[in-house]
Design a protein that fits this description.
With 482 residues, the protein is an alpha/beta fold. The chain is built from 15 helices and 21 strands. The protein binds NADP nicotinamide-adenine-dinucleotide phosphate. NADP nicotinamide-adenine-dinucleotide phosphate binds next to helix 7 and helix 8.
Length: 482
């Protein structure tokens, strides 16, 4: 079994406390991927100190040079694509096809932000005074803490680290404890690409200890967090007294609205990709399907058949369409919500149980009919392959139901009526709206972020706009012939 280490100040080293934790394959309990440092607060402080020391030198380099290092890191990851995808499947459970897509996405993110090194522009303004002009320049913030969840453990660190670095910040990165290896592989690629020591630091371990230090310490200039609402809310509160720059991207309860005119084949396909893809463990996963009554029966029947036919198993098997729950705890949460749904009076029509006799956390794709909007299974994020179908009379009710939750991350509509589609885009309270596309899946060069409890709403992620979070604007007044 391999013992992985922290990366602090350009050195791979164990935690000062010496303790470790195991990373296991959720599709095969006997497969231990490795051990990782269960780091202490001291490790976190040392990582922050290393970042603080390295940041001025990194900021002094040209953004073009910084971009070249990011490009090399992206190409290194690309050369290892197949191995990295297998690592991701082994530690998180998603299918190899999904894992390959995610690693490829991380590679493309590094390439994208490498190019941004040449486009780190400010603006030039005319002045009130003759012989003068005003301009803005983008400056890095300093030391950025990056804390990420287990479900997209390579794409999310990539979409935070790449803009942070190209802008000239130093980073301390804490990956989720359920899937730390694939994030470590990004750090390894950056090291091999020639990143100066201390510019990126990796500290693994418990969120409550390491994460707490990395968000509360005075050396931190900015925090980018993705994870649950409960943890994000706590970090936001903790950061507020220091007024440190922060973005928290959090959970979802994402609806797919199916109107009576929809192409039913497409609607079922969107439901399956959005609801059962990634075992329902995407922040943008479809967990509510809001269906107009004229097609309710036909749609429900088709989705039930498709859910029952999905092949569930170890994601390394190319025939498998859905992997396991990520952990025993997540599986228990899924099963608890299934019981809650039954007690609330929803009608379980597919799945609802674990698949016995397998060496992992396998649950069947689950479908509830007759769900009411106020039921807990229609309100709370489950984060498993559990979909609830909510019948509605018309478009107006569909939008009202879509908005009747505290989250607002992604929302989709399936219809051929473009008037309705754009009315939906106008009226739905979600940061991402999809028309005839699944709630999941994002283009890497366009803004991403939620509304309501899905986000602090401070800054968007992904694409050029991500650089707004990782830079501050300075305004310079120039009198060249005053
Ligand atoms: P989580 O429990 O909130 O953990 C997220 C990260 O925060 C992990 O690295 C965790 O460390 C760390 N952490 C935990 N407690 C902390 C604390 N007190 N201080 C600082 N850091 C702390 O979320 P998760 O279970 O990993 O991920 C699932 C959640 O993420 C879902 O709600 C999902 O919707 C959301 N998500 C949102 C987006 C988005 O872009 N909106 C994308 C993906 C996922 P440990 O792993 O060591 O506990």
């Amino acid at each position: 079994m391999k013992a992985y280490l922290n990366y602090i100040g350009g050195e791979w080293r164990p935690s000062r406390g010496g303790a470790t934790f195991e990373d296991r394959n959720p599709a095969d309990w006997d497969d231990v991927i490795g051990t990782f440092p269960l780091s202490t607060r001291q490790d976190a402080v040392e990582a922050l100190s290393a970042a603080r020391a390295a940041q001025p030198g990194w900021a002094a380099m040209s953004p073009v040079q910084r971009g070249e290092i990011l490009l090399r890191a992206g190409l290194i990851m690309e050369s290892r694509l197949d191995d990295l995808a297998r690592t991701l499947t082994r530690e998180e459970g998603k299918t190899l096809r999904e894992a390959t897509g995610e690693v490829r996405r991380a590679v493309e993110i590094f390439k994208f932000f490498a190019g941004e090194g040449r486009r780190l522009t400010g603006a030039v303004f005319p002045s009130d005074r003759p012989g003068s002009f005003d301009m803005t320049r983008r400056e890095p913030l300093g030391v950025v803490t990056i804390i990420t969840p287990w479900n997209f453990p390579v794409a999310i660190p990539a979409w935070k680290m790449a803009p942070a670095l190209v802008a000239g910040n130093a980073v301390v990165f804490k990956p989720a404890s359920l899937s730390p290896l694939i994030g470590l592989e990004i750090v390894r690629a950056l090291e091999e690409a020639g990143l100066p020591d201390g510019v990126v630091n990796l500290v693994t371990g418990s969120g409550g200890v390491v994460g707490d230090e990395l968000t509360g310490n005075e050396m931190v200039d900015a925090i980018s967090f993705t994870g649950s609402y409960e943890v994000g809310y706590g970090i936001y509160q903790r950061a507020a007294p220091r007024m440190v720059r922060i973005q928290t991207e959090m959970g979802g309860k994402n609806p797919l609205v199916v109107l009576a005119d929809a192409d039913l084949d497409l609607a079922v396909q969107l439901a399956v990709i959005g609801g059962y893809g990634g075992t329902g463990q995407s922040c943008t996963a479809t967990s509510r399907i809001i269906v107009e009554e004229p097609i309710l029966e036909a749609f429900t029947q088709r989705l039930k058949e498709r859910a029952e036919s999905l092949r569930v198993g170890n994601g390394l098997d190319p025939d498998v369409e859905m992997g396991p729950a990520v952990s025993e705890e997540q599986l228990r949460i899924d099963l608890d919500y299934i019981e809650i749904g039954k007690r609330e009076g929803a009608r379980l029509i597919a799945g609802g149980d674990v698949i016995e006799g397998m060496n992992g956390y396998f649950i069947r794709p689950t479908l509830f009919a007759d769900v009411r909007p106020d039921m807990r299974i229609a309100q709370e994020e489950i984060f498993g392959p559990v979909i609830g179908i909510i019948p509605v009379r018309d478009f107006g009710e569909a939008v009202a139901v879509a908005n009747q939750v505290q989250y607002g991350l992604s929302a989709s509509i399936c219809t051929n009526d473009m008037r309705r589609a754009f009315q939906f885009a106008e009226q739905v309270e979600a940061g991402v709206v999809k028309i005839n596309q699944p709630t999941t899946g994002l283009d890497l060069h366009v803004p991403f972020g939620g509304f309501k409890r899905s986000s602090s709403g401070t800054f968007k992620e992904q694409g050029r706009i991500a650089l707004d979070f990782y830079t501050r604007l300075k305004t310079v007044y120039v009198g060249y012939a005053p």
